[in-house]
């Protein structure tokens, strides 16, 4: 199991604190309270390791498939306006990530990044409809031979850090890492209207592995 690089400081601190507590127990300091502290810090260390895990996805090789850019539960599948990159109506798929989901994001398609924008905002609960509009977010627009795709990384109630890796002009590949959101969040995916949606509300999806849609040509991403 690999871990997201952004998690190394948190993992290191948690492990050092837990190790220090158990060293104090071994030295006979603190009595029962130090046992409790050691147990709590060990649990915290395990949680931090789990949160920042970065498993390699089983990326589909079929031509024309769109994979999940985030891991979690599908909460919205609808038609919506997307004026910033797609420039009109689009298919919108929203994925809610709880604190136990993988929080690394991956490219849903292969293509070239033609749009990248960060926007500060509020920290409403990520599953709320308004979160897509008012919350802190980063948008990444990918141009493919079959059409334009937009991925939005949206902060949640306790998320305070969005990381977006590619810059404009960079080439991205389906299933490769494009960023990370810390501690509870949401990922919105916007696709052209003529792409076939293969997921539905309530589905649990795996980042980089689960197929959410297919585009209508045999070649491309």
Please explain how this structure is put together:
With 221 residues, the chain is an alpha+beta fold. It has 2 domains: 5-51; 65-214, Distorted Sandwich (Glucose Permease (Domain IIA)). The chain has helices spanning 8-26, 31-51, 131-134; strands at 65-67, 72-82, 88-97, 104-106, 111-119, 137-144, 147-155, 162-164, 171-172, 177-181, 185-191, 196-197, 204-205, 211-214. The strands form 3 sheets. It has an 8-stranded antiparallel sheet, with no helix packed on it. The protein has a 3-stranded antiparallel sheet with strand order 1-14-12, with no helix packed on it. It has a 3-stranded antiparallel sheet with strand order 4-10-8, with no helix packed on it. 41% of the residues are buried.
